[in-house]
Amino acid sequence: MIRNEVLNCIPYKSISLVKNLINEDNLIIKVVKIRKTKYGDFKKFRDGSSQITINHIKNKYRFLITLIHELAHFRVNKNTKRRVKPHGIEWKNMFQLLMLPFLNNLIFPDEILSKLAKYLKNPSATTDSDIDLVVSLSKYDDEGISVFLFDILNQNLFKHNKNKIYRKIGKLRKRYVCEEVKSKRKYLFSPVTKVEKVKNYENSSS
Q1: Taking the model in full, what pTM does it have?
Q2: What is the DSSP string of 48-81?
Q3: b/e string for 8-18 if b means 16 or more Cβ within 10 A?
Q4: Running along the chain, 206 residues long, what does each successive block of 10 average in pLDDT?
Q5: How many structural domains is the chain composed of?
Q6: Which of 68, 76, 177, 191 lies in disulfide reach of 150, CB 3.0 to 4.6 Å?
Q7: Domain ends where: 97, 115, 138?
Q8: Do residues 134 and 151 share a domain?
Q9: What domain range includes position 107?
């Protein structure tokens, strides 16, 4: 039986479809505190039971996509005896199959629906790899005042990760090189990292 804490995190119109997908007794789905490195994960235990954990994401559309993403892992693990790649063709096909009933504007706003349909033609390990989808989903986030890193100009400052101050330097392939101002250490960031603009900082020139 699916827990109410999960049902409360997804769009109302999707509840009946989700209930139809989750009817296994050996699957536990938990809503957990926000983790910076992932939205959700799937684990199979030695006793044959399985567990899905999903961050307590306030954005119900992102939560639903993450839930179906992890359910696809569960189904592949259950149906496939041989070892396969985590996000290989088996997972891609299963994710597409499970998401298909949800692709309508009773569940997703049109601006998300069009981007989601495009992403599902060849889904990747994370939705964050699709900038158009991330931007459309972000309009329904509840995270206060923030912008995407790609909106920050080179050499400008921004806050991220417990209010640390960084300077955006330039692009390296698909990621941006940024310098943490105090330590001078350089890091790679995704273009769709949520950050806060910084206008003045007393140590920015040190």
Answers
A1: 0.78
A2: S-EEEEEE--S-HHHHHHHHHHHHHHHHHHHH--
A3: ebbbeebeebb
A4: 86 94 85 91 92 94 97 94 92 97 96 96 93 91 76 91 89 93 94 84 46
A5: 2
A6: 191
A7: 138
A8: no
A9: 4-138
